[in-house]
Amino acid sequence: MKQNFSMILLRTVIILGLPFIFLGSSTEKTSPIPKWKQLFDGKSLKGWNIKIRKHDLNDNFGNTFQVQDGNIQVRYGQYTDFDGQFGHLFYKSPYSYYLIGVEYRFVGDQVKGGPGWAFRNSGIMIHGQDPVTMQKDQEFPNSIEVQLLGGSDNGDRSTANLCTPGTQFVKDGKVIKAHCIESNSKTFRGDQWVRVEVLALGDSLIAHYVNGEEVLRYNRPQLDAVGGAAEGTLLKGGSISLQSESHPIDFRKVEIINLEKYAKDPAKLQEVVQKLMAEKRTAKQ
């Protein structure tokens, strides 16, 4: 009699518990869409560090990086000549798995002495080195550059291209050592706002998006190979910075979704990324 009663009690507990088990499983399978974190507060450069070539860390030579009208502005009003003083504005924290969104526009004229290739040229540097480790005369951090370009009056000029200061990558199964490759984005002329997003998943995948459209993807970002090796040290993450390359530019939004907590769960990571990229985010003029 005791055995029968015990079995009945066990079955009752299991049956009553089933709805809660299934409810818990259902909840776990559906991951909420994570929220954007604003890296730029719209008021100041709090949380950012500055490194300009030929100057010490956080010497904001010529007030190159400033905040006006709710934008990060890169300006050269105090320069008499650009003189190769490439600059970078570094966010304080490194990231590895993330989606970053930046809205930018080119304005005005290029400063005297800026190289011809730097006309309407800037960039988002990702998976980069710590600015503390940069040499005083170093032009660019070792990083993956998501190149931002504006069009001239004539001809095509894509944006969200890829350049590789001190780095290389793999595309379509081949190691690519070319310094820059073009995306398949359209050309953006004048002072219109453009939204570029970059999906970076550690050392596995990086994809570029322009106004909600994917324009380039590749994998295995890495430092330049040494000693005759085919591949270099993989870049799993690193610093994020915005460039100063001699043409005035405004950044009105710099925001990020940290995907690190999904890094060890490929199914959830895929689910969250699919939800995020299903929304087409464009820059409003």
Automatic annotation (TrEMBL):
<dbReference type="GO" id="GO:0016787">
    <property type="term" value="F:hydrolase activity"/>
</dbReference>
<dbReference type="InterPro" id="IPR010496">
    <property type="entry name" value="AL/BT2_dom"/>
</dbReference>
<protein>
    <recommendedName>
        <fullName>3-keto-alpha-glucoside-1,2-lyase/3-keto-2-hydroxy-glucal hydratase domain-containing protein</fullName>
    </recommendedName>
</protein>
<feature type="domain" description="3-keto-alpha-glucoside-1,2-lyase/3-keto-2-hydroxy-glucal hydratase">
    <location>
        <begin position="35"/>
        <end position="256"/>
    </location>
</feature>
<dbReference type="Pfam" id="PF06439">
    <property type="entry name" value="3keto-disac_hyd"/>
</dbReference>
